[in-house]
Amino acid sequence: LRRFDDKDIDLRGVKLLKVANTKFLLDYSDHSRTLTLKSRSPNLIFEDIPDFYLSNPPQIIVLAPLCNEISYEYVSKILRKFPKAYFGIDLQGFIRNIDESGKVSYIREESAIANITKIIKLIDDRLILKGSEIEMKLLSNQEDPNKIMEWFNIFDNEAIHIMTMGEAGSMIMKRGENLIKIPAYKPKRVMDETGPGDVYLAIFLYELINSDKSWKKVEEIGYIASAAASFLVEKKGPQGFETKNKVMKRVRNKNYII
Fold first, then answer.
1. Domains and CATH numbers, the chain
2. Which of 40, 58, 148, 204 has the CB geometry, 3.0–4.6 Å to 225, for a possible disulfide?
3. Using the 8-state DSSP alphabet, how is residue 85 labeled?
4. Terminal C-alpha separation, the chain
5. To 5 degrees, how large is the angle CA 63–CA 144–CA 190?
6. Mind listing the pLDDT tens digit for each residue in 240-252?
7. Measuring CA to CA, which residue among 171, 168, 176, 167 is closest to residue 140?
8. pTM value?
């Protein structure tokens, strides 16, 4: 965490436990990865949130569990405390299926789908949900990308839903608006394929909260998020984080993966 502390990132909310944290073994092969769960942290509890966060309401809250550590009740308590906040959700940690050996697989588990569906309905209009293509297929029970995005209309809310598709780019939808298709940007090299979706969501949320939130602006933000994500794979870990000036230069150059 020292790398983040040195950048003046507030780490006061990080809780250190004497029990095992959530840890995975990652095995990459041909642009895909296999995860094996080695240990899992306890579920998050609302009472662990420091008072200084409770007394200074955030504009946006990101819910990104690794292994189902976030419950509906936890989200409900946060929403009651921060009713005006936007909520970013990374879908993967809500729907991962883990067998007795710890192997993580994408199998539709109805209890997990029911839980995230309740959370989507609970957060309603202030939700920004991001998932990979395979995760969104599991959630929607659809195969075609356009059908997947259309499926979210069942929630009858003003939430934003994002599907990232690797080299195929990403799609962004909101009920009543035109479907946005964002291309992927071509990286100079590929060294580490861990985390581009995380960067995409982080940049998208940051830019959104500092914008007028118009649909035209959302499209512009999608390009920025896609370009930022393309830098991450060029280096190992957080060394792939890049400045906004370089990200915007890549946006302007329009060097897409076709």
1. 43-181 (3.40.1190.20), 183-258 (no CATH)
2. 204
3. -
4. 37
5. 60
6. 788 999 999 999 9
7. 171
8. 0.92
